[in-house]
Each structure stands twice: as structure tokens, then as C-alpha cells.
Amino acid sequence: MSLPPGFLDELRNRTSLSRVVGRKVTWDNRKSNQAKGDLWAPCPFHQEKTASFHVDDRKGYYYCFGCHAKGDAVSFLREAENMGFMEAIEVLAREAGMQMPARDPQAAERADRRSQLAEVMEAAVQHYRMQLRTGTGAGARDYLAKRKLSEADRDRFEIGFAPEGWRGLWDHLKAKGIEDELILAAGLAKPVAGGKAPYDTFRNRIMFPIRDARGRCIAFGGRAMDPADSAKYLNSPETELFDKGRSLYNHGPAREAAGKGEPLIVAEGYMDVIALVTAGLHAAVAPLGTAVTEDQLRLLWRIHHEPLVMLDGDAAGIRAAMRLIDLALPMLEAGYGLRFVILPEGMDPDDLIRARGAQAMRNLLEAAQPMVNLLWQRETEGKIFDSPERKAALDKTLRETLRKIADPSIRSHYGEEIKRLRWELFGTNRRAPQPGTRAARMAPGKGRPFVPDAPLPVTRTSLLATPGGAEVEEHLREAMILAICLTHPACVTRFESQLETVAMRDPGHDRLRHALLLASHDPAIAVDPGAFRNKIAAQAGDDLEKLMSLAHVRIAPPVRNFEDSDLATMCLAEELAKLEARRGAAAEVEEAMEDLTGLVDEGLTWRLSQAAAARHKAERSKLDDDSDMGEDRAALSAQLQNLIDRAVWEKKRH
After folding, report:
1. What is the CATH number of the domain that holds 27?
2. Cα within 13 Å of Cα(229), Cβ side
3. What does this protein do (predicted)?
């Protein structure tokens, strides 16, 4: 809403800055000169013992010589109470006796009616508080005492009591001259047919006033004293003042506390909020008896960019978290998210604080989980992924879930995190091969280096098994694969499935492979080769130094040309294909040799011929089908092969 010319100047002239600030500070009388409008106090924006916060009441300006906060009455309300601009203007205008400009006569009329309803609600607050202090409120006071609420706590939250009578509040408000229509419109009473007087909405309940961000009472929440009551908690009906899906309990004080840097906690009910606040966690709110709505989520994000949603650790609490995740996913924006605090099962915030202390609650808040963790938990917990079909079903579900995220950047980061979690599930928890099988001989064990089986006596004299360049060549191909991945981090993601399954015979190579795969899932470094290498060096420094000291690695084209990603992709695919084919041929030959018992039959001869064919195919590479790069690939393949052959010769010679 636009303000007419001169409105702000008139507002500032009528506003006493010292009165606005004085509600938040204690003036230093030794340093202040109130007659001249020169006042000093400890700063409300940072912790200090000395009075370095200066208010010049005549100029309407404040300045802190410690933290350098400065401004006028409007900026003070915005900073100290976390208000929006127009809200601060409305508060100051109301205190100065100025009428806010209305857009039209109807708007002014509606604003006036809401003010009347707010006055009726305030009268009800005072009535209920008075009833709590009388003899009829003894049972309610006992209950609150059992919940460890002192009289000061009751006053702080303005807790009251509605007695059992049918028309106690109605008669009280009528005696004050309040019209029937206003009482009914405020939701404090319900009409009765037949011309009888309406009856009170709340009876025999502990009453919790619900205030809006401006501090006006807009509704009540009532906790039943009778255990047999059909509704343990009852909220006011929706009125011109109260929209349950757009309101939060403890909104105003929580907003002010969050504005001073406290974490915003979203609890389940009134007593949870009160328990948190009395434990020193002042930025606590609660939805009003229902799941969080879109409007409430937007309200939460206006208060704090990352609210902490606190839920019971039982099945109902987890279901509530999942519903909120589905609601929040399409609404996510950069910088705005949710984290979840799961309480121990069977405990609410009050139970936890009383049993373990406020510090235990703070520890839980610090360990709050990001939303993506609960999303992953929902899709994987209690499920077994022991077949390709089940893994594919998980992938499909996750893809459909991530499509709900509208922001492409957030969707991408969620995808990277899900990919990392998926790799941890399937990459490090693969079923171990059976001892004595070929897979067991080829794969490195968890936490131990690969130790190849000793050759069988009958194969030691075989030409195919005599020591030569094959073992050295495989070692060098492993080194080339790792060096390309280290120089071009994007290749790790592209060839992830092959890198996960390829067996690295050298223990140092296997450690490097593991470090590469882990680092590729860190979005902060995965696109920065320098940061990527530093991350690897921190995890596998000696292995990395040993790898890059190899002469054939340092001069290889894909390692020297760190900007040519196409070259790196082509070379890595070729090296992986050759290594896979060579090892497949070697494994086939090994099994054939194990079957050799002195007689060579036709089946064995065929197997050996197939192994030789596989070896020949490996030399030609699996990438020769791409005719558009045939000549360049052949030349590059020959160059890489030459580098490896020379390195093999050097190792054999020495």
C-alpha cells in the first residue's frame, strides 16, 4: 500500500524514539540527559555491559558505537522485533494516534470491525485469566503446576481457565455492554435455536490465547480438563480475525527472537512451545492442531530461512514429517529449506527437557537433519534392494519425487545428494563374493588389499602364465585410468558404474579409486579440478604422489591437456574397455587351466580359442564403431599403447 506524501514525516514528528526504544533497553541514568533527549543504554542488538547505544530523541535517530547499528523508529522496530516495513508503520501510527490511510471506504470499515473484534477477544483474555485465579480454577492450577509452570510462566503466556458453566463468558461480556453479534462473530459463543441465549464455546478448559504477529488476540486454544472429553484440544472457529491455516501460536515473540539470531523451532502444540520457551529457546511456534499448511510454511520462511521442525519419534511423527516434505518440495527456493529434529520415541519436548535438561534439547537441535535425509529414509528404510528390478523401482520413485522441485538448481543439488546416498547404499554394501570363486580372486576385500592366489603347479610352465608384461601392463592401465579421472573430475561421474566395479589390483590404486568416487559426490569441488585434487591428496597423499610420478602418466595426452574433456572421455573409455576385455580373457584362460588334468579335449580347446579372440578384440578397442573419429582414435590409441609398452619394457629391463 502506498502512503500519501508527508505521512512518514508527520509520523516521525509524532513518534518519540526514546519511548519506542525504551521498551527494549534500560537507560544508563549516569550517562543520559533525558531533558535534552540525549539517552544511552547497552545495545539491544549485541551483547555488552557498557552503554554504547545512543539515542538522540530530538533528531529521532539512534547509533551504536559498538556494532554500528543505526536508524530511526521504523528501522528499530524492523530490526528489534523482526517486523516488515508496513507493519512497523502501522504500529507507530497506532501509538501516535494517526489513522492509516485506507484504500477505500470498505477497507476502512473492515479494519474498524476487526479492531472491535480484537477488543472483544481482549476482554475474554482478561476474564479467563481472572477465572484461573479463583477457586473454580484450582484444578487447572494444579495441572499447570504438575507441568512445572510457575505463576510467572502463566502470566507470560496469559493462560486462563474457562469454568464449566454454559454462559459464564457470555454473561460477563454482556455485562460490559458488548453486542451479541460481536461475541458471536469473535467465535466466543454459539447460537441456539428457539430464541434462547447462546452458550460459551469453551467450557472446563485451560485457555491459551492465540495472538497474531502484531500481538492482537485472534483466537483461543482450550485444553480439556475432563479426560473423557471428545476433544482434548479445541481451537476457536474461524472468524474475520482468525484463519487457522494462516496463523501460528507464539508468532510475534518467536519472530522477535529469531530476528536476534535464535533458531526457529516448529513444535506440535501449545505446551511444547511453552516448554521450549521456558527452557530458553524463545523462537518456538506451533501450527494450530493441524498439519503445516502452505501459508504457514511461507510464514515460517518469512521468520527464518531454515526452520527446525520438531516431531515425535513415533510413527505418527514420522508420517507428519513425510507429509511436510511433500508439501515443501515444490516450494523450495535457494536459501530456504527445512531441517528436522526427531525426538526420542515416547517423549515430547517437555518430557525431554525435564528428564535430560535444556542442553540435551540444544544438542538435538544442533544435530537436526536436512530434508533430503528424511526423504531418502522414507524411500529406503526397511526395504531390501537385492535385485536390479528393486533398484530400478527405487530410482523411478526418487526421480518422480525430485521432479516436484521447481527450482532447477535445488533439484540438481538434491539429485547429487541422492546419488551420493545411493552410491553409499549400493557401492559399499555390495554382497561379498563367495570365497574361492573367480569374483573373490579378482575383487579387493573390504578394508584389506587384494592378494592374488598363487598359480597352480600345472600352470607354472604354461606360456600363457609365465611372467611377462601382462601384469605390469595392467598396473599401468590402472594408473592411466586413475590419472585421467584425477585430471578430469567430470569423467568420474560419467563412468561411475564402471569405476565402481573395476578391480584395482594395486592396493594404492584401490584406495585412490575409492577417494575419487567419494570426492565426485561433493558438489562444492566436483567441478573444480584443483579443489578436487586437493581433496584426493588429503585422503590418499602418498598414493597420489606415487601415481603422478609415473613418467607415462605425466606425458599422456589426456593428463597434459586438462581442458580437453572430449579427449579425456575417449581415452578413459578406451582404457577401461581394454582392461575389462584383457582381464576377461585372462580369467577365462585361468579357469581353463584349472580344468586341465593332463588331457586336452575339444571343449577346452574351444575355450582357449575364445580367450585368444577376446584378447585380440581388446587390442582393437570397443570404441572403433564410432567412424567419425576413427583415424584420430586409432592414432591416439597407438600413442597410449606405445607409452604403456615403453613403460612395461622399462620395468622388465630393470
Report:
1. 3.90.580.10
2. 15
3. RNA polymerase that catalyzes the synthesis of short RNA molecules used as primers for DNA polymerase during DNA replication.
Judgement on whether residues 90 and 109 belong to the same structural domain of the protein: no
> Is 32:38 a contact under the CB 8 Å cutoff?
yes
Distance CA 431, CA 407 (A): 37
Distance CA 152, CA 36 (A): 37
Predicted TM-score (pTM) of this structure = 0.56
Same domain, 277 and 426: yes
Half-sphere exposure of 433 (CA within 13 A, CB side): 13
Give the separation between CA 519 and CA 92, rounded to whole angstroms: 54
Cα 375 to Cα 385: distance, rounded to the nearest angstrom: 17
Asked whether residue 297 falls in the same domain as residue 218, the answer is no
E-strand stretches of 46-109 = 53-56, 61-64, 70-71
Tracing cell 581415452 back to the chain, one arrives at 571
- Is 13 a member of any domain? yes
Crossing angle (nearest 10°) for helices 349-356 and 358-366: 120
| Residue that is written with C-alpha cell 594395486 in the block | 506
Length of the chain: 654
pLDDT in tens, 428-473: 444 444 555 544 444 444 444 444 455 444 444 333 343 445 677 7
Same domain, 345 and 225: no
Query: Of the residues 96, 125, 155, which one is the last residue of a structural domain?
Result: 96
Instruction: Indicate whether 418 and 293 sit together in one domain.
Output: yes
The neighbouring-strand residues paired with 208 are 221
Question: Residue 621 domain-assigned?
Answer: yes
Which residue is it, cell 503466556? 157
For residue range 89-133, what is the model confidence (pLDDT) as tens digits?
888 998 888 888 766 566 666 667 888 999 999 999 999 999 999
**Taking Cα atoms as reference points, which of 65, 183, 71 lies closest to residue 120?**
183
Residue 365 shares a structural domain with residue 418: yes
Residue 549 DSSP SS3: coil
Q: Is residue 450 exposed (0-12), middle (13-18) or buried (19+ Cβ within 10 Å)?
A: middle
Residue 411 maps to a domain? yes
Q: Report the DSSP pairing between strands 160-162 and 205-211.
A: antiparallel
Q: How many domains does the chain have?
A: 4
Same domain, 89 and 188: no
- Which domain does 158 fall in, by range? 103-242
Q: What does the alpha-carbon distance between residue 251 and residue 223 come to, in Å, rounded to a whole number?
A: 20
- Per the rule left: phi > 0, alpha: psi between -120 and 50, beta: everything else, 177 is left
C-alpha cell at 245: 491455516
Q: Residue 520, Cα to own-chain centre: how many angstroms?
A: 21
